[in-house]
């Protein structure tokens, strides 16, 4: 499979971490132009990826830029102690991220919660918006009375194309034109290849949000090129790719067929002749029309989406407002 | 009480019908410059009010313009037959209303659902948006393939100031600038003085939405003057004024005290010396700070808000798109 | 594959219609001891199945008894006219069903809504309970004042084992012991093999509810044998079997591989050597542990579950209470 | 006003603390037979009341027994640090409470969540049930494998009379007969006279739940006398009495009228001749039929009900299971 094919294939992979894994397994080794660094602390694994060259971008199928991923496998256990630690770490990491990409401490911020509040796994963005600590109206109405340590923050949930008839990107553009933020933080629900990453992973990226990513279908991106304002994207996988189920089943079927050696020969031979990436691509093509209408979710999705949205909101609130106590970040969500 | 006082008082009354009742009871008779016409059919009472002069507007405390009110006391019984009839009549009346105020059949429409989708009685607007038949994206993406009989309709729920930090009016302005509609239809949840009107009444007005009306606090209107596009407002009372409770209780206390004639003399004398309007105004003043944080709702609000939102959406869909079968209007909500 | 194997396999198939299709495709023809009759009217297909012999039951993998299935492919279009027709037909069919199995017009009924109100696709039962026209309290408190044409109906949603720690069957048993109904009507969300059946199909059966059926895991049945009271089950498929996705993908992959004839030979040969049933069984085995935690739902599930629950409730209300107008059945849901 | 009158009046007051305040203000002093003790720590005020004599019970209008009240005015600020402290303190206090009334550490517990999950302010009980750590099914299915430190706990939400047609008390009785708990913990949403107590106060009482208390109308109690098992009630006020609004308004009106001294004389004289209790009673009578259908809630009720339910659930989980870490109690809600 050529690099070009891989790029086309990977374009749809939401998590940079998974795109890297796939590309490495296909390319049998590290990808040139992609720097990565991993740290682990108390059950929270943070991976910092930087795609520094066009070649790396082409191979990995992700835009050049910075990607930070939090993986917290225990996050589904609803331990509020752990949740608070994650929110605190997220606040620190996000503050550093903003500094690294040159966003100042007084830059005005517009938080954009993408997705559909009526489809549970797509409601992440709107829920974060609800819990964001917004202050823009205070700066507008009584600028001299805003306590020090708060910056100008606003937040909107533009809805999805099927409900509004208007591209999210256009709605955001209109609001940007009126409210003049210096930075957009766009929140979106993603898909993952691994069940264990669903609702336990948070990705920060400075590449904006590109058409076709996330659960909803976007035709126009939410990027600096389009909006004229830098865009940092925060994503959480809340659904599985249907292809994951198919792929897992085929693996298990293969195991099963091994017991009937004579039957399995042809099958295994065939399967072995197709590498994992190609197989996934076939499944994705096959599921295309069907997959568009289906969501594969953990049974407990309704219970966890709110938790992870609160962690993201708490982390943002503490990262954006210096006045928010960094040691008890969740005290300020509403 | 002077006319000026009355106007100040009535400014907060959402329903033109109630403003007229109050003004008439205070003024002991019909209001000059206010035309009204009532028709009844099968449990649906339609009142068409027109405030034609500045004097009438001042006395009634409502803007000059056209107001149409549907009253359907049985609407809470959840008879889908009745619901369909109301939606059908609403479609006809709304189509006539648009014609009367000069909106053409191909005018592009932006539906704006005001309110907070997380506060049940304030969720009317967002629910109507969800159920509106939007087509703008089809006109944009494949203009030659849109079936005849559909017009260009889009719909947004801009959120409330406390959540977004941006005035709804500003968000709508930004979206109007980008999407260039010819008409805005703004949906808002209102307050009523009468329990029996809650969730059973629909008001259409061509006056737009003014600061301070509806459940949420607006500081800037959604009007033709501000947005440069005509605005038709559709409102449904979903909460009671807290003053209604107080007023009803005082009436009942007075009845009670009558039985102890000697005690009641002073009280009744005093109460009789204050006319109904003045008393209401006192109560509103008194409740001011408290009332702001309180909602008085029927116990069954969660169950009915969805029904009436569907009626409004069905009526709008049939009024706006000629292709929608006017005899089965609710077939097109989603 | 032996009949015995098939039975084991089919035990998990919720819809009798799908069990019959599978058994017929495996057995190459009609199943002995299974009577069936199909009628169609205005987009509503009604199939009446009767499994009359133990042989038929064994082959089909479903209990002996009566099964009536409504299939209404257009039901997702949210046409309230069609919804009302389905509810009306359901009322008639259900009334006939009760008569056929010997339930009298004054028999006291307990409606049991199985499932978890917090997991959207599993919330069917609890939503039907909410919308059932219950009267038992009126019969208890003022027996002489209940209008003629109503029977004694009560309704409970017992919750699921993971939330309560008590088998639904035990909770129902306790309530039956206290409230002494003559008949139980149990509502449950099912799984289907076909996307087009999800939220468009209703199954009535006089066989009760058996361990392992429905979305939730039951370990003890809700049957006449256990509760001492006849149990009619009403089920609606609201999720897909994950195996459906796998199976569809494999079919599509096969198509794809045909284009590369030399590659596909072994694969196709192998796939052809496994018949559809065996393949499905393999997939189910393979998905076992994974599938348990996953739900595959149409994206629009949140919007449709309420509609179909209302249809079921409306149909039940009209079937159970003679006083409910059979021509406008949905007027009585609340 | 005689003691008898007061008792009739207070019967409807849900919070023992408010009943005591009212009785003391009426009786001009402490109530005989009522012991009370107050402690404060870090924003959490705990009041332990014991009604030890029939005279005290008659005067206060509350059953003889133990009442513990948590008041945490800052609880609405959604500081998860404070929430965790409250849950932790609640766990300790509740464990002590059980010990004090003689409930052993291995007693089997059934948690009963009263109320209607579809009416936001009445959903407290069902939400606590969802978040309770239930173990009964493990004890039933694999008794030898339950880790030490867990006791046998189950949990049910029986629904409300208007939905089920069966008294909650009867449903609970049936479940008690089948599942044989040693103790019932009943959770219920209450009404308060003070806005600042709504969603910030938790009451524990060993008196069970009596007809007419809470938001829903109960006709039969959930008490040891009826069920044969001790009942501890946990209540949280989530709505205001409508009479509170009326009473507050009248006070404010009085202030207003003072400015027009000649007008106010009669009114004030009259108001002064009615003491606070009598006035409240009048208002309650007056509002009787109206109040029954109305809920007066803070605007933010939807956001806070979940928080306080989680606190109650976390506190219960830690109090009931020794294995639950008392220093991080919220780690075990799901």
Q: Would you kindly provide a written description of the structure presented here, covering whatever features stand out?
A:
4 copies of one chain form a homotetramer. By secondary structure, chain A is an alpha/beta fold. Chain A folds into 2 domains: 7-240 and 297-331, Rossmann fold; 245-290, no CATH class. Chain A contains 13 helices and 9 strands. Chain A has helices spanning 3-10, 16-27, 54-60, 80-100, 124-131, 136-141, 161-164, 168-179, 224-227, 242-258, 261-273, 276-292, 301-320; strands spanning 34-41, 44-51, 65-71, 109-113, 153-156, 183-192, 201-205, 231-240, 294-298. In chain A, strands 1-2-3-7-8-6-4-5 form an 8-stranded mixed sheet, with helices on both faces. The radius of gyration of chain A is 21 Å and the shape is globular. Chain A starts with a helix and ends in a 14-residue tail after the last helix. Mean pLDDT of chain A is 84; it is low at 1-11. Chains in contact: A-B, A-C, A-D, B-C, B-D, C-D. The A-D interface holds A 77-84, 303, 328, 330-334 and D 77-84, 300, 303, 328, 330-334. Chains A, B, C, D: Its EC number is 3.4.24.78. Chains A, B, C, D: InterPro entries: Pept_HybD-like_dom_sf (IPR023430), Peptidase_A25 (IPR005080). Chains A, B, C, D: Initiates the rapid degradation of small, acid-soluble proteins during spore germination. Chains A, B, C, D: Keywords: Hydrolase, Protease, Zymogen. Chains A, B, C, D: Residues 1-14 form a propeptide.
